[in-house]
Every structure is written in structure tokens, then in C-alpha cells.
Amino acid sequence: MTQALLFKDIDEPGLNTIGVYEARGGYEQLRRALRELTPEAVLGELETSNLRGRGGAGFQMGKKVSFLPKGSMDKYVVCNADESEPGTFKDRELMQKCPHMLIEGIVIASYAAGANRAFIYIRGEYVHQADILDAALAEARAAGFVGEDILGSGHSLSLVVHRGAGAYICGEETGLLDSLEGKRGNPRLKPPFPANQGLYQGPTLINNVETLSTVPAIMRMGGAQYAELGVQTSTGTKLVSVSGHVQKPGNYEIELGVPSRDIIYGLAGGPPQGRQVKCWFPGGSSSPVLTGEDLDIPYDFDSMAKAGTMLGSGAVIVVDDSTPILDVALKVAKFYRHESCGKCTPCREGTNWTVKMLERIDSGEATPMDIEIMASVQEHIMGNCLCVLGDAMAMPIGSMIAKFRGEFEAHIEQARARNQLVAV
Q1: Which of 169, 352, 372, 389 could form a disulfide linkage to 175, CB 3.0–4.6 angstroms apart?
Q2: Domain(s) of CATH 3.40.50.11540: residues in the chain
Q3: Measured between alpha carbons, how far is 116 from 94 in angstroms, rounded to an integer?
Q4: Which part of the chain has CATH 1.20.1440.230?
């Protein structure tokens, strides 16, 4: 039985209000951190926990905090609440049902990082969740948990909820920073990295909602005890959003390292009666697909990497054998073509080329050589863009070509035969 940390009281009525949150132990860890611990001690707990970022890259949060330079300059904490990855909806539930857990996590993280300014960048479509966050933030300010000289500790933090305008590229951390500064959301060249030169050219810690919401639980348990959950290189619990062809889609909290089958068949009920898993995305639409033969792979960062894919945002999208792989590929490619900012040629042109080639396959105009060209296009996109948006299309499309080439070739033959019948 997984030990619920983030979802422990998630369906408690009124948990989005400060009264109910405090009655369930909320803000106790913030009080303890500010009154009893030094910033270095808080950072030590985060590093001991080995908490890896839950937004996609899986970089250790404690290390990220430690990279911020020391000194009296303005430092920033930015919460990435854009959550635009198709198939991902866990952060939405956290913000909607328990916004104070996120606020508490941000204030504790800011104390460890020595930051005095913080922003929650939330996607424009999350109007309801942004309203809830605004109300929770007003409660936290009134209670003295955000603002000047918090709880008499000498630590001050201004916190702002900033609403985006619905661009997928703003989920990429440097595109998000440009958007926050009032510019068009384009990715930046790295280095310099945000930890050294981020928002308004200042040192910046960027983490997503789930990562920052985990901080109070780590402080409550202690980093060492948290690290005992999960597996050695992927510690703790993880929220997974399961969608697609499953009988019980939804958000689930699992301990990292459980077999993927336990998520898809155990928690989500598996595909509809009589259907089999054809392929599944383990980490949102940008992760390379796995097949129904890969269901026993442990669900953790390193096991997924060894299998040639990634855990990503924790969005498990299941596709059963009723769906042609071409339909899946086209939906993925069209999404990334639409969301490309156009700054990098491989992404701007490569996503468009891929859509056109998939449409040629669908219409019966393609030849097997087009599949080879399409695979080559994916290889030329990967690693050649300022951000990973191009890779986010190239990786899943490339994996579909590799694993379902026979189905793509059969689709060409069937479409061509239909065209000949129509011509006759």
C-alpha cells in the first residue's frame, strides 16, 4: 500500500481554505523551519531526500537550490504551474484542492534558497485554479505566512500568482521566464542557466507544482525517511495522471519503482473489455512510446531511461489495439507543429515536414521511402534546438516508426488500394 503524502487528505472538504489546512497540520513545517532551523539545515533535508524534480527533467531539487549563488542580491523562486503537457492534470488537482500546501512549500524553499521574491506561473486555461490560488494567497498573507518578516524570522517573501496565455512553450523554463518578464515566450540559449542568471537576470530556482508541494512532507518526515520511499535513485512518491483507453482514468499517488502494470491494470483498471494495450506513453505525449510487452518495467526515472523512454511529467497515456498508430502519430505531430515557437529551424520545419509526411501516408500518396525520410527528420531534430519542444515530437514519432513500421507500411498499401478502387 503506497504511503500517501500529497494526496493524504486531498478530498477533505474545505482543504483549500487555511482553517482546514492548518487543522490538518498545515504550516507547522513552515513554522518549524523558520523558527528552529537555519536555511542550510533546510537545504540539507532537501538534499538528503534526493527529491528529483517532478516536472519532467528529474533533476535533484536540493542540488538545484545549492547552485544558487550566495549573497544579498535579489533571488527568485518560480513555480512552474503551466502544466501544458498533453495527458498531465495532476498539478491542477493539487492547486484546486490544496493550494496552501504549494504556498507552504514555496516559502520553505525560498528560505532554503535565500530568495525574497516568488512567482507562480499558472497556465491561462486554469482560471478556476488561479482564482483558488489567489484566495489562498490572500489568506496566507493575512495569517503572516507570506510577506515581510514572516513569523518574526527575518525572512521576507513577496509571492505573486501570474496567469499565462495558453502557450505550450511557456512550460519550458526559459520560455516561462521570458513570458514572466513580459516578452514573447521564447526559449533562451543556455548557459547561462537560470540558477545563475534567470528572472530579471537574477539567480532563480524553478520547480513545478508537485515538486514544491512535496517540500512540507519532506520536512515533516525528514529527508532520510523520505529517501527510504521508492527506489535508491528515484525516491519518494509520485503523482501519475492516467488517461486514454483505461477503465478508471484519473490521478493516483504511487511509490516510485512499482511495476508499470500495477498502474495501468491495477489502479486504472486496464483497457476496455476485450482490448489489449497497443502502446503507452509513460511520461506525457513527449515521451517515446512503449508497447504492451513493456508493462513490467518498474515505473521510476532510471528504469524508464534504460527502456529508451522517460518518466517525464508522470502522465501515462494508454492506447489500445482499436486505434491505428497513424492516428496517434498525427495527433502528436500536429500538436507540436502548432505549439512550436518557430525560433529554431529544425523544430519549425521538422514538425511541419512530419505532419505532411504522415498525411501522405494517410492519403496513400506515400512510399516506404517516405517512412525512411520521416525517421531521418526526427534524428535531425533531436538535440539541435534551443529547447526540447522539437525533441518532444521527434522522440515519440521516432519510437512509433521504430516499433510499428509494419503498420505504417500496411496503412500505405491499404490507402493506395482504396485510391485505386475509387479511380476504377
Answers
A1: 169
A2: 18-228
A3: 24
A4: 325-418
| 298 to 173, 249, 257, 303, 328: CA distances (angstroms) | 28, 20, 5, 6, 25
Blockwise average pLDDT, block size 10, the chain, 424 residues = 84 95 96 95 95 84 88 92 93 97 97 96 95 97 96 95 91 92 90 91 95 96 94 93 97 96 96 95 95 95 94 94 96 94 91 94 89 93 89 95 94 84 66
Return residue ranges of the chain for CATH 3.10.20.600.
Answer: 231-320
Find the largest Cα–Cα distance for the chain. 85
Where does 187-228 have alpha helices with state H? 209-221, 223-227
Count CB neighbours of 193 within 10 A: 16
DSSP annotation of 256 reads: T
On the CB side of 39, CA atoms within 13 Å amount to: 16
- Angle of helix 90-97 relative to helix 127-142, nearest 10 degrees, comes to 40
Select from 3.40.640.10, 1.20.1440.230, 3.40.190.10, 3.30.70.260 the CATH code of 325-418: 1.20.1440.230
Tell me the CATH class for 18-228.
alpha beta
Partnered with residue 118 across adjacent β-strands are 77, 159
- Grid cell locating 381: 531534430
DSSP 3-state assignment of 259? strand
Determine how β-strand 277-281 pairs with β-strand 290-291: antiparallel
Q: How far apart are CA 86 and CA 315, in angstroms?
A: 8
User: Does domain 231-320 sit in CATH 3.10.20.600?
Assistant: yes
